Automatic annotation (TrEMBL):
The keyword Membrane applies. The keyword Transmembrane applies. GO terms for cellular component: plasma membrane. This is Sulfate transport system permease protein CysT. It holds the Pfam family BPD_transp_1. The chain crosses the membrane at residues 7-29, 49-78, 90-112, 124-148, 180-198, 232-258.
Length: 268
């Protein structure tokens, strides 16, 4: 039904060039116009490095949390039938449809010092809102669907028969999960982590309300770019965007290489 490889591949390259490569190339051209020495000076300033560390660190932590709990949620949705299952499944997708600013306002109302949950944490010396902890919670909220929807179809295709066969051979539940289930869902789980991580690195709306936006402490990199734009420092915003883009691409490329290696081991 589809045309041959040459035509399909040409269309693929043309479409990616139009939608992805040309917009990204303009960022490098803009940065190159200010001189690469100035790009390094602005893109690797103390304030920018703190923002990178916060953005990538919280995105990685949120991705790991979602990898664990997203797997549990996907397992429950696939393996069990219970009243309200469709409602739970719809709630998983809610962060996709909910405006991120609404999520940020709701989380701030919950975890602020006078919030519904924060008022009980404050006397214990636990501060969530306006810290990196609050940022991580916001990124967990918006990243959960990526892991669940990546793992869910793989678990559904795996079936219970594989677990039953392992049990008849004397495997314990842990051995079944470690040697049978996890190798099968590993690439999908890594894909979900990569998607949640990528979304978290560039997230803006749900974070700015709960982060506090203090430079050097709770200022994320996307907010720093917006701040530069509001100050008409377009060159500085471009420099930070270039560093963010290169770092994100390197991390995602590494994850894709790990996925490919995992699939080759499974195929062997």
């Amino acid at each position: 039904m589809l045309p041959g490889f040459g035509l399909s591949f040409g269309f693929t390259l043309a479409w990616l060039t139009l939608i992805v490569l040309i917009p990204l190339a303009t960022i490098f051209l803009k940065a190159g116009g200010m001189g690469w020495a100035q790009v390094v000076e602005v893109g690797f300033s103390e304030r920018a490095l703190a923002a990178y560390q916060l953005s990538f660190g919280t995105a990685a932590m949120a991705g790991l949390v979602n990898a664990v709990f997203g797997l549990v949620v996907a397992w429950v949705l696939v393996r069990y039938s219970f009243p309200g299952k469709q409602v739970v499944s719809a709630l998983v997708d809610l962060p996709f449809a909910l405006p991120t600013a609404v999520a940020g306002i709701a989380l701030t109302a919950l975890y602020a010092p006078q919030g519904w949950i924060g008022q009980y944490l404050e006397p214990l010396g636990i501060k969530v809102a306006f810290t990196w902890v609050g940022i991580t919670i916001a990124l967990v909220f918006i990243g959960l669907p990526f892991v669940v929807r990546s793992v869910e179809p793989v678990l559904a295709d795996l079936g219970r028969e594989v677990e039953e066969a392992a049990a008849t051979l004397g495997a314990t539940r842990w051995q079944t999960f470690r040697h049978v289930i996890f190798p099968a869902i590993g690439p999908a789980l890594l894909t979900g982590f990569a998607l949640a991580f990528a979304r978290g690195v560039g997230e803006y709306g749900s974070v700015i309300f709960i982060s506090g936006n203090m430079p050097g402490r709770t200022e994320i990199a996307p907010l720093l770019i917006v701040t530069q734009l509001e100050q008409y420092a377009y060159a500085g915003a471009t420099a930070i965007a270039v560093v963010m883009m290169l770092a994100s691409f390197a991390v995602l490329l590494l994850i894709n290489l790990v996925q490919a290696a995992s699939r080759r081991r499974m195929g062997a």
